[in-house]
Predict the 3D structure of the following.
Amino acid sequence: MTAHPLDPLSADEFSRVAAILRRDDRVPDTVRFTSVELREPPKAEVKRWRTGDPIPRSALAVLLDRAENKTYEACVDLAAEAVTAFEHIPGVQPNFTRDEFHDVDRAMREHPAVIAALAERGFTDIDLILIDVWTYAKAMMPERYGDRRLGWCDLWARATPDGNPYGHPISGLKLIVDVNTLELLEIELGPDNGFPDVDCEYIPEVSGRPMRTDLKSLNITQPDGPSFSMDGTELKWQNWTMRLGFNYREGPVLYQVTFDDDGTTRDVAYRMSFAEMVVPYRDPTFDHYRRTAYDIGEWGLGAMTTSLELGCDCLGEIVYVDAVLADATGEPRTIRNAICLHEEDNAVLWKHVDHKTGAEVRRQRRMVVSCHATVANYEYLVYWRFYQDGNIECEVRATGIMVTTPYPEGQSAPPYGTVVDTNTYAPFHQHFLVARLDLDVDGENNTVFEVDSVAPPVSEDNPYGLALVTQSTPITSEAESARDFDWSTQRAWKVVNPAKTNRHGTNVAYKLVPGACFPPMMDPTTPQYLRAPVIGHTLWVTRNSAEERWPAGAYPVQSEVDTGITEWVKDDAPLEDTDIVLWYVFGIHHITRMEEWPIMSVDTVSFWLKPTGFFDQNPSIDAPRTSKGQPGSCHS
Ligand SMILES: [Cu+2]
């Protein structure tokens, strides 16, 4: 296995980081390690690095001193065994951790006032209660709690020990908790909207509903093994090469994505990942008004990643990659089978039927890098797919159990959701995902063009009004970089290398083909918008900076104003012929449906990156015919 400067920290390295920090006098005993990750060497250094060169290894840790409610950022140089920087960051709260979720749960279910409040509502079996802690926006926090690390808890009651954990919300009852001290600060009471008898079970053994019996087996076999290979973190498949990373926040990171074009290795992207997810619930009632989740910034897509199971999560000839993260004590925690690598057959790649030569057809294969995260009631399934013709598809599926809420018997449901069961509705909400795409199209220096399709008016040249042209407008500086999708012009964005041309003299490019984008539909003065104005536009472009990673700020927990993208673009850095980063905002505008209850089948959204004049012709022209002799082969 060949080591590389972009390899994620290993279990041993996490332990060493923790040990180095614990020996340092500045690190109090009362800290939680809220995150530890590889401190990536600068891009230029990584690109210069060659096998055999020394491998710089350093880590960035964020520590929360629970006793003092103070946040520290620490840099640790692993080779020097030294803390190279240690800084108190005032006025911020780092991400919440799994340990805190469990600690709050334990403290609250033992708390006499919680037990009493539940008993008053008729819930006497505490083992059936689920306590779900959410974080706050600063604007929603009761002022009397100042800058405490504050959580608010939703309560749910299972009908039976194995019953749906999110089937029966207990309305009008919230716990406000100091997450550092695990003190119950307040039990907040709102309207008790009842406890309707709902049909919410999704496990057949619990619901008693028999499963269908008419599916025959479907096996995917690759008797010769898969066509990809892994060397350390480097993945090679067909003409693609890339490197896999992973951290607590972004989950999977794809580095140094290149395509072998007839023997020439050509850059496509330096780094691609998900940088934020903002999920505002759009229901102003007591139970929901403060419910806005930052699943990446508050909890971490990596930290919430779950182990995958062969045959269920992934089918076929799978190579799994484990992920290692730090727990709250800084010690390594391994997520077994965190990333699934496999090839998929995806129907036809290209085909033509000629009356003389017959059908010429190629099956399409794709290389899939996937990963699943469970964040409380929802799961997010991320699929990065690479195709033989140079396309890249990024798909996200949301599944799990929708938040539901009762409304009083005899009344009609509020208009902010869809009725899905007896006196129960599922509030509308939105899942805004922000992909961070550091594309390097044939090198670092690129320019982004907004491309609109336009129909010129009827004229002498265009007597029938059928002409269609495209207009490309460069995004010249960051002040112009907040762009919106336009359905009427079928807008897309092209990342162009102004110094490289294809064989017909046009500049090589990759096109971001938008999908699943929607406007925020939120007044710009609302607190949730002020925290994350990144959701206000489909695309932002910035000049690449290693410091600019989190578009809604590095510390969105209890945030009030944006410290991310709108701050970064203020210097109005020029964007032409330079190293640019795209921030693509898309997701699910979730108008809830009855069919998504009691469990939601996947809602699927995606965007594509497509070569546009990057290759001189279809790069999959040499894709092979289905080999002879295979069962079902079309070529004899
Ligand atoms: Cu949803």
Notes: The chain has three domains: 11-89, 98-207, 229-401+429-590+599-611. The two ends are 40 Å apart (CA to CA).
